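Annex B. Sample input.
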Amino acid sequence: MARTLMYEAAIVILHRVKRASHLKDWALAIAQRAGPGKARVALARKLSVILHSIWRSGEPFRWSGQPSAA
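Annex B, continued. Sample output.
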């Protein structure tokens, strides 16, 4: 179930999200080189790695990737 949801999230990021994102740019570059299917799977895996890292650290997700001024 988690794998399916990560795959669907990857599809949404690639096709529906209009906001600029390093993840989206990264996946689109893979799509140009290796095709859209591999890009969706690669993005789903990267999302799961990010999610796991967030769970372990307890820090909130920062969309821009910029460190917050705390």
